[in-house]
Write a sequence for this structure.
């Protein structure tokens, strides 16, 4: 604290005893004519002019702060009335010193003060021409107007406390660094901001961020800053608080990387806000990446907004750019949003994952200046492979401003995109080139212009790839159903990919629109691996208001009428449905029409009989016409079985034949599920449950039921789930 000169105010009189109106009080360093600042308040936050001009009562607030003073009193005509030297307040004696007491030299002050606990007042511009460390025992207090100009290549290391307001205290191209705990917050204003003028605020903002590296001290924004590019990088444990303010991009150089770059680890950023301001010199608003010096992992961002940019966030490499294959993982953004952005998020980080919680991502023209190209737009494009992924929980993904276009427009693109509980409002096509999961959507997906909703790219033509739609609603306006026959899912380029649709409703894509796929609802070029509890709803035209319930039908083996109900005679060898009959070892063998053996409550059974010396086979459709299976998954074959013959030597076999996506045989040609040696007749229907591991290259399977040596068997409820 400072000491007041006079009580309660300094008051001066002329030689005639009249209040010295307009009098002048000069303050100097004791014993010199070097000016020394006095202050108008006890906190010494407001410096007085020197001299202090007395009011009409001859009074003024004059506080002496740090060190000793010489006081000279003059009248309004500068005639000296008196001089007093070595005036010093008690606080000044114990705690405070002024930089002026040490010839305006920080080095001299440190040498003189030593290890004594002291607050050093810097109330004027001083220079630093060599590296210098401020000890932990010395506190620096900058008064507005006081600053240190640090020479190029030199560093001021501050280990003690520092106190300053929102004004410039550092100048020059040298560096100021802080010890952990030396300041509570760091402000760009300490390096001098200039706003939207020719020199801009890049240097000040970058210096503040650099000063906060690895010391867990928040960098706090208090203004909107105009920058070319600033980078949070090269150090861990950084904290940056945008505090409701933003960075505005002002680069005039084409192909500038980004307004804001991130490559750091174990850092926290709050309310990150970047406005590219329609500046097409930028490749993107924010780029988040790893390099050889730092892998960008374990970063938490609470709030991120990007406005008015062709591309919003690039995670990893730019399109066609070089990637650094680092572990850029465990990174989270809560509440990410875009406005006026053509391409919202592009990811190309082969070994990186990004987690988005409650984002509000929109392809949105806003008041875009120049060309806004919907045909190159997208919400999310994950180009990465080899582990690169984006995972989304909640929020909203929107690309709803499209007008009808002849060229395709896209919502989601790429692979390893996993969405849970989000609202989808996508007018366009989702291009799937690898694994994609959409689960528990709110309000469903919207396709407004008749595009194929999911198009599987050729890169997805692999049985290891999966598109999973689980507990979702997808719909499009009713007037597009009749005018646009495009399928809901086009598998033409990736027939090997696994498509699972579970507990979902698909509305206004009619099941009958694409005749090339028979009765499989609006799936072109292939067959889904699994349907379970799917409603296909079409509200106009043929089949109006019909709802189609498909319960695992691809894996039920119920497509043949082999129970004799439509047989002209009791026994024949004609194909039943799409099942076939064959014999080996001689003539004989039949489909049999003994319907009395059908189990109660079941619609069909298969009766398999052969004559002596004949082996009989009944085979479901084979090759690419077989039923879908899931590679590398353990599935369960189940059936009901009744054995209708006696005597030893008779046998019944159940075998699965495996096929690849193109219909060719799997490397594992077949798997025998089980066999029965007939040693007596079963009086009641028994159950069969056998786990089966699907080969890694198998997409289709066929079932073969075989009898040998005059066996007789009945089967019902055949499934492979």
């Amino acid at each position: 604290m400072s000491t007041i000169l006079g009580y309660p105010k300094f008051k001066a009189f002329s030689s005639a005893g009249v209040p010295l109106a307009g009098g002048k009080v000069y303050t100097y360093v004791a014993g010199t004519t070097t000016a020394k600042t006095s202050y108008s308040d006890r906190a010494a936050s407001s410096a007085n002019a020197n001299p202090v001009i007395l009011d009409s009562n001859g009074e003024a607030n004059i506080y002496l702060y740090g060190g000793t003073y010489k006081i000279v009193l003059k009248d309004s005509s500068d005639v000296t009335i008196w001089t007093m030297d070595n005036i010093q307040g008690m606080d000044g004696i114990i705690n405070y010193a002024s930089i002026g007491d040490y010839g305006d030299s920080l080095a001299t002050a440190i040498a003189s003060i030593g290890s004594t606990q002291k607050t050093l007042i810097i109330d004027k511009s001083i220079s630093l021409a060599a590296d210098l460390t401020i000890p932990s025992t010395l506190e620096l207090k900058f008064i507005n107007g006081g600053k240190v100009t640090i020479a190029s290549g030199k560093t001021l290391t501050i280990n003690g406390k520092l106190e300053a307001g929102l004004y410039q205290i550092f100048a020059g191209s040298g560096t100021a660094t802080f010890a952990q705990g030396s300041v509570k917050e760091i402000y760009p204003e300490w390096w001098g901001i200039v706003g939207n003028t020719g020199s801009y605020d890049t240097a000040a903002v970058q210096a503040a961020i650099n000063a906060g590296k690895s010391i867990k001290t928040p960098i706090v924004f208090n203004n909107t800053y105009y920058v070319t590019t600033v980078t949070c990088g090269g150090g861990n444990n950084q904290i940056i608080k945008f505090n409701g303010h933003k960075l505005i991009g002002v680069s005039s150089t084409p192909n500038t990387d980004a307004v804001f770059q991130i490559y750091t680890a174990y850092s926290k950023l709050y309310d990150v806000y970047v406005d590219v301001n329609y500046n097409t010199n930028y490749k993107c608003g924010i780029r988040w990446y790893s390099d050889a010096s730092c892998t960008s992992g374990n970063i938490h961002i609470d709030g991120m907004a990007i406005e008015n940019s062709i591309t919003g966030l690039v995670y990893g490499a730019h399109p066609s750019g070089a990637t650094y294959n680092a572990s850029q993982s465990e990174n989270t953004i809560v509440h990410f949003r875009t406005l006026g952005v053509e391409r919202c998020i592009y990811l190309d980080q082969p070994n990186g994952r990004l987690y988005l919680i409650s984002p509000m991502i929109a392809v949105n023209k806003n008041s875009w200046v120049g060309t806004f190209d919907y045909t190159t737009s997208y919400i999310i494009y994950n180009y990465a492979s080899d582990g690169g992924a984006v995972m989304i929980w909640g929020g909203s993904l929107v690309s709803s401003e499209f007008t009808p276009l002849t060229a395709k427009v896209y919502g989601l693109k790429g692979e390893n995109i996993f969405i849970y509980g989000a609202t989808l409002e996508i007018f366009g096509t989702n291009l799937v080139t690898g694994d994609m999961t959409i689960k528990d959507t709110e309000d469903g997906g919207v396709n407004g212009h008749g595009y194929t909703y999911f198009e599987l790219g050729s890169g997805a033509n692999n049985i290891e790839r999966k598109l999973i739609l689980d507990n979702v609603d997808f719909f499009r306006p009713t007037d597009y159903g009749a005018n646009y026959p495009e399928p809901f899912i086009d598998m033409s380029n990736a027939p090997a990919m696994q498509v699972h649709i579970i507990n979902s409703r698909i509305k206004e894509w009619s099941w009958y629109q694409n005749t090339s796929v028979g009765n499989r609802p609006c799936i072109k070029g292939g067959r889904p691996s699994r349907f379970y509890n799917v409603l296909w709803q079409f509200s106009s035209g043929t089949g109006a208001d019909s709802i189609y319930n498909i319960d695992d039908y691809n894996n039920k083996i119920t497509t043949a009428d082999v129970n004799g109900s439509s047989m002209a005679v009791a026994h024949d060898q004609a194909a039943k449905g799409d099942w076939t009959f064959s014999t080996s070892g001689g003539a004989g063998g039949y489909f049999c029409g003994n319907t009395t053996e059908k189990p109660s409550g079941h619609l069909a059974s298969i009766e398999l009989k052969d004559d002596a010396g004949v082996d009989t086979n009944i085979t479901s459709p084979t090759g690419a016409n077989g039923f879908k299976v899931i590679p590398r998954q353990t599935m369960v074959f189940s059936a009901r079985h009744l054995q209708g013959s006696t005597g030893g030597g008779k046998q019944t076999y159940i075998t699965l034949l495996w096929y690849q996506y193109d219909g060719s045989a799997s490397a594992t040609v077949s798997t025998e599920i089980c066999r029965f040696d007939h040693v007596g007749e079963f009086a009641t229907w028994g159950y069969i449950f056998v786990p089966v591991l699907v080969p890694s290259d198998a997409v289709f399977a066929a079932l073969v039921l075989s009898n040998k040596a005059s066996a007789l068997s009945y089967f019902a409820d055949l499934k492979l789930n």
Remarks:
- The chain is about 5% helix and 45% strand.
- The longest strand covers residues 328-348.
- The mean pLDDT is 82.
- Helices lie at 90-94, 106-113, 202-211, 478-483.
